[in-house]
Every structure is written in structure tokens, then in C-alpha cells.
Design a protein that fits this description.
This protein is of the alpha+beta class. It has 3 domains: about 20-70; about 105-315, Alpha-Beta Complex (Sulfite Oxidase, Chain A, domain 2); about 325-445, Sandwich (Immunoglobulin-like). It is built from 9 helices and 25 strands. The strands form 7 sheets. The chain has a 5-stranded mixed sheet with strand order 5-4-13-8-9. Helix 1 packs across helix 2 (about 55-60). The site of ligand MTE has 20 residues, from strand 3.
């Protein structure tokens, strides 16, 4: 950057301390207490000033920063031995980083949602322990030696596979996002939920490993003349069943046992789940126990009366399936606070159920002017894409927005454009541009801009 280096602005980053019954703008950064926070703020300011003059260390020392002047214990003592935690855990300072549920959203929390803390994650992969959860009838930890997958219907030979049978077949590993069709549902009603965790946190992205469904369909000899659809069925008490077209089933659908390099977590379908890239989460049937090949859609409860879109003409649209192109700024986002004017990195996520992200534009003035953000690699189809863009905050109120465009040329709509074609009674499939308002105080909140 030419001329005077802009001062680095600091963010109170994580609105993670919402206890479940409290959705007020009461935030602390990673659970630090006020005293420690104000100390950190002072030292950041000092570091910012020092950076401008180019000798941070000397300045900090001159300022008497004890973190520089005194050798901490960890520099002078023996650390813990290897394998003290045989399965590694996050730092104790990251304890506030959690999946959270929204109280009162559902009547019982076995049939509910926990949201991924998008505001505190980096890159595109969701740590497995923070992957959002959506269960219709609670989750189970199923004994894999007792689990079976049956393939039946319009096949030459119906088969029952054990986990061992499946895991010796040729496998693939692919990175994909999964988004619940109800993600961002509250924004239809302009309910300004307090953070991006609650507005967009039914979204995660992982590397999944398993056998392509096409391999199993070929193995059972599906009837190429009559097969039009498959039905996927889960083993939990919810009787979760979804119809998938045979074209999609043969294209990129995976019968997966692994997520991020290890076996699936129980909450996410251990030992077997369907991965249906680009399609809404409900079709990613967990605890998968059966695939039936048929010649027509099955019109089960999970597709005939649930997961349907209320249209303006009073009709309902079924089988919406694809998650259209969407993006959201994750920092700065609602619940966070900018502590200074100066330089900020605006960062966020973009994705499309139809392929790759082509471009992301960012506005800091509520959509009047747009600049093109940097897309970070890897840039994969039906996968989250991380974007970044520089911003210097002058202390005036601002409205931050991101707008994604996918490789088909589809442009993420504004909320009023979406309402014009989808009406006002929708719950599902809200992919509108999200607005975050930055107040002069630095507080960031969820607003709707038309
Ligand atoms: N068997 C079964 N599969 C299921 C569900 C379920 O309740 N039971 N929930 C579905 C819904 S609505 C979503 S959004 C995703 C959530 O997957 P996750 O819990 O791994 O995030 O799983 C889908 N698959
Ligand atoms: Mo869902």
C-alpha cells in the first residue's frame, strides 16, 4: 500500500458467549473478562502505533509490555508429554467456540438444530466437532458391525452390504458444503437473529470419503430402461426418506463413511450417510440403511409436506433440491464490534449448488458501490469458497454486503427480488444477500436492506 500505512483495526471477534436464553448484544471475545480485554485492547493499540513506526518489538519493550520483557513459564519449563490427549482437543482458551442451539426453535431438542459458529472459523473446512446438526428424531451411535445397507427395487439382484463390504469397494474423497434448506429461514420474516451463527450456521463443509452410489447401482444391476429415481432411507426413528433422480444418483452422489479423514461422527450419520453435492441437507440421509430404485418420485412425508416452498400464488413447490448461489460475510458480522477505525480484512464464504463460484462482490455502503473480492484457493464445485477484501473503516456508519455469482452466471438476489418471485410465506431456500450494519460505535448488527 502506498503512502502512510493504515492503522490495523481490531475486532471483538466472537459473539460466542450468548448463553442460550440470552440473545442480547452482550459479547465478549473468547470468554475473556473485561479487565483482560481492556488490557488486550491497550496492547493492540500500542502494537498498532508501533507497527506504523516499524519497530514493534522495541516500542513494546519501551512501553514496558510484560509479555515481551518477562520470560513466560512456557519458555523456561518442560512441556507436557506426547499423547497426553490421545485424541487432541482445542486449546482451553477456545472453550467458547461451540455449536449452539436456538432456544424455543423446536419443541424438543432431539428434533432440533445446532448451528456452526461461522464467525470464528477460517478457510473452508468445518472442524468435525463443529459441524452443524439437524436431527428429526435425535441421534444414535450405531454399532458399525450391526449396520447394513440394502439396495432393492428395479435391480437385477437386490443386495445387502455390511460396512466391510462397502469399505473394500473403490472409494472417492471430495470436499462439499452441506446446507439445510431451512438455513437463513428467519430472514424471510425479518427476524434479525443476533449473529451469523444463527442466520447462516446450518452450513458446514467437509471432505467426505465413500463409494460412489453409481458403483453400487451398477453392482446390483439397476434397470437402465425403467429406473428414473432412487429413494434413500435412514435407520433412525424419523423414517427419513428422500427421492433423488437417477441422473443425479449416477453423477456425483457418494455413500460416505468418512468425514475430514476419519469415520463420520455419530451426530452426522455414523457409520454411513448419503452425500448429495449441491442439494439441500435433508437429502443427505444419515444412518443410511436402504436405497430403492424406482420409476417415479416417492412423495414421502419429507418431500410431499415438509421441505416444500410456499409460492406467491398459494401453491407449494416440491423437490426444490438445489441450494442456489449464496454468500455471507462472516467477519465483521452481527454481534462483533470494531474497536478502532483503520484497516480491516472483510472475509466470508460463498457457495453454489450448481458448481463453482465465479466472483464475489462486496459493498460497504448498502449495495450502492461494489468491489470484487479475492477468491482463495481451493476453488471447487459445490464447495465453500473463502473470499477476502481490504477495507479501511473511517468510523462512519456502514452497511456490509456480499453478492456471489456462480459459474452459470446466476447472481445472488436481494431479499426484495427474492420475495417478488417467492412471496412472503416461505421458510426454505433463502439465498438472499445478507446485510450487516456497522454503527459509529463499531457495533455490528443484523439489518435488512431492500
Ligand atoms: N436419517 C436422517 N437423516 C437426516 C436427517 C435426519 O433427521 N435423519 N436430517 C436431515 C437434515 S434436515 C439435514 S439438514 C441434514 C443435517 O446433517 P448434519 O446433522 O450432519 O448437519 O441431515 C439430513 N439427514
Ligand atoms: Mo435440513
Amino acid at each position: 500500500m502506498a503512502g502512510e500505512a493504515p492503522k490495523a483495526g481490531r475486532i471483538l471477534r466472537a459473539p460466542e458467549n450468548f448463553v442460550d436464553s440470552q440473545l442480547a448484544l452482550d459479547i465478549t471475545s473468547h470468554g475473556l473478562n473485561d479487565q483482560r480485554r481492556s488490557f488486550l485492547r491497550k496492547s493492540f493499540l500500542a502494537a498498532g502505533a508501533a507497527m506504523a513506526s516499524g519497530t514493534a518489538l522495541a516500542q513494546a519493550a519501551a512501553g514496558g509490555d510484560p509479555a515481551i520483557l518477562k520470560l513466560p513459564e512456557h519458555s523456561t519449563s518442560l512441556g507436557k508429554p506426547v499423547a497426553s490427549t490421545p485424541y487432541g482437543l482445542p486449546s482451553r482458551f477456545e472453550g467458547a467456540l461451540q455449536r449452539r442451539e436456538s432456544p424455543g426453535l423446536t419443541r424438543v431438542n432431539a428434533a432440533s438444530v445446532s448451528f456452526t459458529p461461522l464467525q470464528s472459523l477460517f478457510g473452508i473446512i468445518t472442524p468435525s466437532g463443529l459441524h452443524f446438526e439437524r436431527h428429526h428424531q435425535g441421534w444414535h451411535d450405531i454399532d458399525p458391525s450391526q449396520h447394513r445397507l440394502m439396495v432393492n427395487g428395479l435391480v437385477r439382484q437386490q443386495k445387502i452390504y455390511t460396512m466391510d463390504d462397502l469399505m473394500r469397494l473403490p472409494s472417492v474423497s471430495r470436499m462439499h458444503f452441506i446446507e439445510c434448506g431451512a438455513n437463513t429461514a428467519m430472514e424471510w420474516g425479518n427476524v434479525a437473529v443476533p449473529s451469523v451463527q444463527y442466520s447462516h450456521g446450518m452450513l458446514s463443509c467437509s471432505e467426505f470419503t465413500g463409494v460412489p452410489l453409481s458403483v453400487l447401482l451398477e453392482d446390483c444391476g439397476y434397470d437402465k430402461k425403467t429406473a428414473r429415481f432412487v429413494l434413500a432411507e435412514g435407520a433412525d426413528g424419523s423414517g427419513m426418506t428422500r427421492t433423488i433422480s437417477i441422473e443425479r444418483a449416477l453423477d456425483d452422489v457418494i455413500v460416505a463413511w468418512a468425514m475430514n479423514g476419519e469415520m463420520l461422527r455419530p451426530e452426522n450419520g455414523y457409520p454411513l450417510r448419503l452425500v448429495v453435492p449441491g442439494v439441500q441437507g435433508v437429502s443427505w440421509v444419515k444412518w443410511l440403511r436402504r436405497i430403492e430404485v424406482g420409476d417415479q418420485p416417492y412423495a414421502t412425508k419429507d418431500e410431499a409436506i415438509h421441505y416444500i416452498d410456499a409460492m406467491p400464488d398459494g401453491m407449494y413447490r416440491q423437490y426444490t433440491s438445489v441450494q442456489e448461489c449464496k454468500s455471507v460475510i462472516t467477519t465483521p458480522s452481527a454481534g462483533q464490534r470494531l474497536l478502532d477505525t483503520g484497516f480491516y480484512n472483510i472475509t466470508g464464504l460463498a457457495w453454489s449448488g450448481r458448481g463453482k463460484i465465479k466472483r464475489v462482490d462486496v459493498s460497504t455502503d448498502g449495495g450502492r458501490n461494489w468491489r470484487t473480492a479475492r477468491l482463495e484457493s481451493p476453488l471447487l464445485p459445490k464447495c465453500l469458497t473463502r473470499f477476502n477484501i481490504d477495507w479501511t473503516w473511517d468510523g462512519a456508519p456502514a452497511v456490509l454486503q456480499a453478492r456471489a455469482i456462480d459459474e452459470t452466471g446466476y447472481v445472488q438476489p436481494k431479499i426484495n427480488e427474492l420475495r417478488a418471485v417467492r412471496g412472503t410465506r416461505s421458510i426454505y431456500h433463502n439465498n438472499a444477500i445478507q446485510s450487516w450494519q456497522v454503527a459509529a460505535s463499531g457495533e455490528v448488527s443484523n439489518v435488512q436492506v431492500y
